[in-house]
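Kindly inspect both lines:
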Amino acid sequence: MIGLLDSPTNGKVFIDGIDTTKLNDNKISSFRNKKLGFIFQFSNLLSDLSVLENVLLPIQIAGINSTEKDARDLLKVVGLGDQIHKRANKISGGQAQRAAIARGLINKPSIVLADEPTGNLDSVTSNTIVQLMKSMARKLNQTFIVVTHDREHFGDVDRIITIKDGKAFEGDQPSAMEILAK
């Protein structure tokens, strides 16, 4: 619902004070391109484009005033400064995931939805990416919603919601009392 990829059957979804349930398809697309960043579990890069071209796609589609320099800088931060001209189908899975992370952050979205963003990365690169996300969250006042099975990489975060057996709990694990109360 937060990614505006599905509509609620009842209720409303507010993002940045805007009732997104009242937006038509074109406005939803525009809103999504400007306000939301997506880091998918699988990189979903376009294989015929270069790493740099893949990262630039969201800002080109949204008409946002970021520059190629911003994309190059972000690619350096994720460790791909020397891979920018390679085709997406010529880089490793971990490199593709780092390119996808840069692509999800390039438009400086209010909310970044990240599905297993470190799942295909080694522990050193994972830590670098987590620190990048935390830094951007503070610097750009962004909200990162991260789905992960790898909780220990994220350390201290503002809020944790654990989903177990289809139920959501505040914190790492539901207490015995919460389980009994359900």
